[in-house]
Amino acid sequence: MDITFYQDAKNKILKLDLFSKTAEDLAKNFSAEKGKNRRSQVRKFYDEVLRLNSLAKSRPGDWRNIHPYVEMLIAKATYAEGRELVSENFATFMRKAVTQVQVPQDLEVFANFFEAFMGFYRKYQKAN
Predict the structure, then answer these.
(1) Per the structure, how many domains does the chain have?
(2) Per-residue pLDDT tens for 15-26?
């Protein structure tokens, strides 16, 4: 599973299909993992990403204190995986996504990607 936000990270140029094909493929993969990644669990992570993104926007000078909470999403995903609430693939996705978040702009991209993913995930969860 290749979750890379940028085709050119240095110049912050997004991958063309990030919010379409990449998000849809990921949603299909997670939906196929029967008994894992319940929408309510995934939604908790999505809500937390939105909350942190909103916080980063409203307090732009406080990024150094917000960023550690973004990093903590890795620990939360690992914990949820350990409790069998999400799959290993979901925890890996969170790790790969969070490690790309270095500045508030990256968090905005992650939040938008997660939004696109959730739209597709809803569709594929219903289908399974």
Answers:
(1) 1
(2) 999 999 999 999
